[in-house]
Amino acid sequence: xxxxxxxxxxxxxxAAAAAAAQGGGKNVVIASGNGSRACTKAMELLQAGRDTLxxxxxxxxxxxxxxxxxxxxxxxxxxxxxxxxxxxxxxxxPTRRAGAVGALRGIKTxxxxxxxxxxxxDHIMLVGEGxxxxxxxxxxxxxxxxxxxxxxxxxAWKESLRDKNRHNNWGPGLDAPPEERQAxxxxxxxxxxEATLAWAWEVIADPPTGTxxxxxxxxxxxxxxxxxxxxxxxKIPGRVGDSPIIGAGxxxxxxxxxxxxxxxxxxxxxxVGAHTVVENMRHGMSAREAVLDCLKRISRNYGDDxxxxxxxxxxxxxxxxxxxxxxxxxxxxxxxxxxxxxRPRRFTYNDGTGTRTADCVFLYRRKI
Length: 368
Ligand code: ASP
Known about the structure:
The protein is an alpha+beta fold and 368 residues long. Helix content is 38%, strand content 21%. It has an eight-stranded mixed beta sheet. A five-stranded mixed beta sheet has the order 7-8-9-10-13, covered by helices on one side. Helix 2 (36-47) packs antiparallel against helix 3 (52-64), helix 6 packs across helix 9 and helix 11 (273-282) crosses helix 12 (287-300). The relative contact order is 0.15. Residues 209-211, 229, 231-232, 241-243, 262-265 line the site of aspartic acid.
């Protein structure tokens, strides 16, 4: 027999499910920690009624074109031969389409090329030389993406290997006067401030990763996402990480939600992270639960050995169709370098009331 109370509870449940299916009725953008300008831009476009994919791409273009961000697009740190190679992918929820480029050289905005692969080919992914030719065919300008700062950091890294390997011939030779060997970083960054020198030491000793992932939901419940990166610094030419891999660096399912990742791509590919996060949400997990479960799978791949897990970091971002969102990191803070301060893992979001940063949830607390 249906009582008035059980009828009301049942209808509340149906209403909640319907709200989730329709979207939460508001615009939401989330992005990795370096994405605050992207969030602001994407929200501006969503509020102007523009398409979700257009919004997130316009957002990340700001970072791709910024020479001072050394982990994405122009100004990104190069591969071991000093060449910048970029990876990116996009997914458009409403049309359920995807596009990607890998190891693309010479084009500042790989996210736009990924979108063209989606829209103007019958393929999903183009890589290397073919991707560049395709971009040029569509009028993209081929440019040198290696900024002076990134070139010097690369050269300093190459010369630093001399101390570790006597067969490396880059850097002052055996016959060089001792003072030339000592003023190592000053050779590359004469007169540089402390912050630049600290950055250079860090990228030499601990090849950084860094990427931007940006996900959007609009008031109509439509979703899209983009991930774009210059990948791992000093990588082997041709190395493609997780960022352009649909299902790893990014996944969007218009019925459920969207997810993306930054951090050590090799770990993500092995758990097909973004897809895993979305599937977790499909089976009822909150965004927070979904990212934590995915991080546990990564930990499991190392038998939960904290010493090995401490050598890298990885982050997942999740946005459910009902507007619930979260970001999660393997560790609460970044690896401290040379006694520097470990940085808390943060992400950025904008729910229509301004761009903010928040702490990621995390699986483990680093021993400092
Ligand atoms: N996931 C990127 C890669 O492995 C790098 C990063 O996000 O830091 O290429």
